[in-house]
Amino acid sequence: MTTPSGRPIPRRPAPFGPDQLEEHGGTTPGPAEISEIAHETAAVIVGAGRAARDPEITRRLVALVDELGLSTIADLWSDRPARSLPGALWRLYAIREWVRRSPHEVSREYAAGIRFTDVAHAVAGVAEPPGPDEVRRITDDILTGVYAGDFAIALDRASAFCAVISAGRADLAGDSDGPAAGVLTRRGVSMLQTSNDLRACAALWRAGELT
Question: Which of 17, 33, 130, 143 has its CB surrounded by the most CB atoms within 10 Å?
């Protein structure tokens, strides 16, 4: 796969640690270099994808994890601040992968949260009833908006989606006993933080400050 500018994006790279790097005359990148790479790759992918205005390129970027693997995306972006461009992209792709792997669990949690989050449900735009196909579709729609729509709106929709999931987990925790209730509660709090971070990223993008 290549970016719209023709630069190749490598498929799952073979392990290449510090020892192998030194053998090839290189040096291990430091924290500053790793940070720079993360922010540059995020900016290049978003910028090139939005400039291309090509449905096929958009489709391939939406499915980037399918081709590169979640671990590759994690290596690039997961350590960056939540309220940054690579941090936002990591969360969007991680959410999509979670939904693809556990659509029945996601639809159950989402359905449980709707009655507590009317506004967030409307913003997210998940069709009713929110079954497995509907939640899978919405994550693809959100990522499509990153590359072929209003990026801030895509982030707002993702934030709203997470807010509904968080409310659903809280509701399901109330119906659970013992350790299961604690797990759902903690996961609900985590998802609410993700919702808050994505909403903040939307505001930063509108202000031209999401980097």
Answer: 143
Tokens of 163: 């807010």
3 state DSSP class of 2:
strand
Q: Is the dihedral of CA 114, 147, 97, 37 positive or negative?
A: negative
- Two tokens at 1? 């796969």
Quote the CA–CA distance of 20 and 48 in Å, as a whole number. 32
Phi, psi of 182 (to 5 degrees): -65, -40
Whole-structure pTM value: 0.86
Read off the pLDDT of residues 161-192 as tens digits, 9 standing for 90 and up: 999 999 999 999 999 888 899 999 999 999 99
Q: Could you tell me if residue 25 is left (phi over 0), alpha (psi between -120 and 50 degrees) or otherwise beta?
A: left
Asked whether the predicted pLDDT for residue 17 surpasses 50, the reply is no
Query: Tens digits of per-residue pLDDT, 95-139?
Result: 999 999 999 999 999 999 999 999 999 999 999 999 999 999 999
Is the distance from CB of 38 to CB of 72 less than 8 angstroms? no
Structure tokens that stand for 4 in this block: 């719209």
Report the distance separating Cα 164 and Cα 114, nearest Å. Answer: 6
Task: Note the Cα 156 to chain centre separation in Å.
Answer: 12
Q: Is 11 helix (H, G, I), strand (E, B) or coil?
A: coil
